[in-house]
Amino acid sequence: MPLYLPSSGATTPTATTAQYIANTAGVVLSPDAVWGSGVEAAPGFITSFAPALDLYINARLTLTANFTLANPAVMKPGQSGRIRLIQDATGGRTIAYGSYWKKAAGDPSALSTAAGAVDILYYDVIDSTTIKYTLSKGIA
């Protein structure tokens, strides 16, 4: 299928991965930008982590202390992704959630606590103050 370009013969710039994630106007998508957006970011661990959903979709954190998954400053309704949470060699790290993070009744919210345990938190941004999450525990 041909790509639509303006009839004036002008070319439209191809989006970078960062532009795709940031929802930049005036650029066209390329497969590289779309697939590149799924690569896990590895931001440095801090005890109050607010995912930068305007910079990445998926993330990976190695937990070295108890922490709070804080509300993101920027998020786009309809965005979804995952955060891989890895217990360090000590384990026993816990999580608290900011007010935007909501789970379905009966879904787990506590992390696996064994040393080296891996959990994956899947999220879906519903609106400007609601992020629905599901926690998959004990990923081998």
TrEMBL record:
Listed name of the protein: Uncharacterized protein
Organism: Methylorubrum aminovorans
Biological classification of the source: Bacteria, Pseudomonadati, Pseudomonadota, Alphaproteobacteria, Hyphomicrobiales
